[in-house]
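Chain and conformation:
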Amino acid sequence: MTLLKNAVLVMFLLAVAACNQDQDTPAPVSTDSDNLDQAVAVEQYDAATFFQTTSFFLGNNGNAFSADNQSLLISSDETGVFNVYRLDLTSGERQALTDSTTDAAFAVNYFADGERILYTADQGGNELNHVFVRAADGSVTDLTPGEELKASFLGWSADQAYFYLLTNERDGAAFDVYCYSSSDYVREQVFANEQNLQINAISRDGRWLALNQNHTSADSDVYLVDLNTEDNTPRLITPHDGDVAYSVYDFTPGNDALILATDEHGEFNQAWRYDLASGESSVLVAADWDVSYVNYSPTGKYRVVGVNNDGSTEVTVTESSTGQLLGLNDLPAGDLRNVRFSADETRMAFLVNGDTAPSNVFWVDLQGDRTARQLTEALNPAINPDNLVEGQVVRYPSFDDLAIPGILYRPHQASAEQQAPAIVWVHGGPGGQNRKGYRAAIQHLVNHGYAVFAMNNRGSSGYGKTFFHMDDKRHGEVDLQDVVYARRYLETLDWVDGSKVGIMGGSYGGYMVAAALAFEPEVFDVGINIFGVTNWVRTLDSIPPWWESFKKALYDEMGDPATDAERHHRISPLFHAGNIVKPLLVVQGANDPRVLQVESDELVEAVRANGTHVEYIIFPDEGHGFRRRENRITASDAYVAFLDEYLRG
């Protein structure tokens, strides 16, 4: 389950991720020309070539494998729009199970019969997801019909006879729990969320429900509901003093414990086991970084733990009874993602992702030689992987000497004699994190000779709770200075052209672009704002109703509009757009429910009034983040064309 401190604000604005900050600032790693090979020629590719790379996701843990263990349920955007596919484990062939040409569809699970599937889709990026069932004959039923309704999958019963969905049909601001029959889809409401808590997990026996309450962005609690009793009042199980964040990973398969996340015992989230019978807690997993997730195979034979280690996820799979590490053979380099088990626990599937290798699907026979077998080829075969660039984790001192981490991508063709123009890439959130892994848009920029520094300003997740809260109610101020000092850092690299540095980002990163151009108008030479907030007064007053359970924590982080409107006005670039004098590209989805199109409309109009060059692209069929390949290609081509003209010159 998603952790509170990594999720509350990331869910709000996230677009499209090290050392402890108390550590002395080290010198950047291998970034000067003395330590790197000289510039080399590379073959360049256009955006269409990069985005012909296919994205894959596995269905939810539980029934990602078919009943006969012969196929996996996956999502793929190979047609240009995400659809659901059956992936054969022997041949690697994919059979399309949905055929949408407009609305992205994502796999949830197989039913126990291995023929029917659950999947979810919204409408044009509006984030009002419904849950659908596709029958063996191809017919589709919307299990959660309604015009202004949002729904999601919660879990299966142990015997697969029932499944649980969340919908906000009763109250747009609250998600209730419904139990559906797997045979005829007759449903029953099993929990009415009158207190509007965040529902995290349900136990396999259908008895226990785990919920979160967010008091502030630093303080939260976990509640339990016993659905076998008449009184469904949530019971607090994490009493504490002071600012402590608690959230939920999952219930154990044996229904005997709830695995909690907490930062009570240090800078980073640890996993603790809460015994449902005794109420006693004990540490399960602790690391020098955040424990990102803990989950299990169907009976709990295997345990999977992910740790966020300096922008990469370290995944370990162990036998629960012995703690012995599960050894795998022929595993390629990269991060493991989406680890899934078959119902009989004889097979395991996962994705492997790296900077130069997009996510591919692998599976392992756990009763055989445990050799990783690759089923997909995600990278466009027209791209030579040698022309792609591995990111390097580096740190630089900010205005107050705080070490700011980031991932630096150096073009192959860059050298002290052939300096590269550079881009500071700011993540979404606030509270997101730029992470290692394949990103077509970044590789496209780097391939065309632009250095990209994906920095993680203070307030980013993944570097401890102190670092995470350093920007609370100081947005557009201290974090903006981290961005300014990112340019100063790039200017110290002899292979970077320090006179040509731009800034770009999406969502909160887009806000930072507009803020940099408005409040530090001479620092960056160009900006690319991708659906960024420009008017905090409006944005914080118009959040969608289904974020109601996060509102208190959001306001604690950003400030309550009722009391902090003056500050929101002060840090909103729209009201200071008269300062923007550098070329600007703005990209926006017309259906965005988080950052409304009017935000970008008004910014563009105001900046054009200065006589400043502005380019504006609106996608009528997108929301917050671009799902359609043709639109991602258009956007990425626009980034390079804009930078070629107004930055590279």
